[in-house]
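User: I'll paste a sequence; please echo it back and then give the predicted structure.

Assistant: Echoing your sequence first, then the prediction.
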Amino acid sequence: MKRIGAFLLVLVFFSFSLSGCYYFSAKNQIKTAERLVSDLKAQGGEQKVPYEYCSAESFLNMARGEFDSNDYSHSKGFSSRSIAAAQAGLAEVKKK
């Protein structure tokens, strides 16, 4: 009986620690995406590369929504898509 209790305690501990890791990871990725989207907007991304800008902004909004719904893994996925779109837009703006 003690072994089962110890196992359940360890299981609960790991589940809480893993959910905390997703929380901070998603939060950091959202901050990075916000910074990149802001940089893209400052460099005229709305007019120069509208597709990349709209994609980055839309993915960022979805990431925020998932984060607010406590779905950190989906939030992290959407924020990484936002980062990729913003980086692509910044690369295109620098070419022009």
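Residues 23-95 form one domain. DSSP finds four helices and no strands in the chain.
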